Amino acid sequence: MTTLDVTSVRLSECALAADAHLAVGRTGTPTIHYCFRGTGFILLDDDAPIRLAPHTLVIIPPGRVMTIAATPHLATLRSVDKHNHYDFTLGSLQRHTVGHGAPSLVLACGPFQANYGPALDLFASLATPVVEKFDVHDQLDQVMTYAMAELTAQNVGEGAMSAALLKLVLLALLRRCLVSTNRWVERFSILSDPPIARAFAAMTSRPATPHTVHSLAHAVGLSRSAFMARFSAAFGESPMSLLRCVRMRHAADLLAANALSIDQVALNAGYQSRSSFTRTFRRYYDSDPSEYRAKAQRASSDRATPTEDAIEESDAA
Length: 317
What we know:
Keywords: DNA-binding, Transcription, Transcription regulation. It is built from 10 helices and 12 strands. It is an alpha+beta fold.
């Protein structure tokens, strides 16, 4: 991974007291969030809450409004205003505290840009958050602490040093492609072939676009035959087969979020016909979209009700 380059990074230490929440404004670049201690959630309007715990690393796509909440239970998120009028700009302050009392959730947060090779902005077209849990043996706490200290020191070259340190963090994340079962790893499994990486990024960032083999090949500067061969070598299936999978996963996420009608979900997944969308969705998830949405809502409701053991464990902490 010698061609990975972090071209910019700004970090803030965000410390939230118990039950406090922090509204974060949009940025034109992706943002990284690393939890040092405590538990909480990152809330996005159209995604499921992202649980934060020590050593959790999250990358949020560009242009997303979010709220960071310092609460251990999903049930308490109903009272969080995700449209707070004050939006903090990540990286604008070295340390930002929210709420009264000792911090119960501490994170390093900030915008960054990382390139793979001369032209591929690795996370610019990220469509869904990347979430990965590390542990103390990975030593990311120390690396992120050093990166923030370098930015705080304001010495000559501290930007380059912080970028180099963040590169170590991203390398640790990308190495998870080899072992992680999380869905985000698919995005980075083809870094050795930048044209194919760009084609895959186009699929995942714009699933509603009427992509064809010809349009994708043309967009990345390959002949149709060369594109088909290299794409199949990278993924083990054809571009259109993988595109259907990407669209169905996108549709499943939208259905679980319960913010759009079935017809709107179909359009966002690249289908003009609801019946065609429903048939394809049923093949992938063994249920029609309305059934899938109902199951997702029931599961979300069950998770929102903490068990007695979970409450006792939280109180003991």
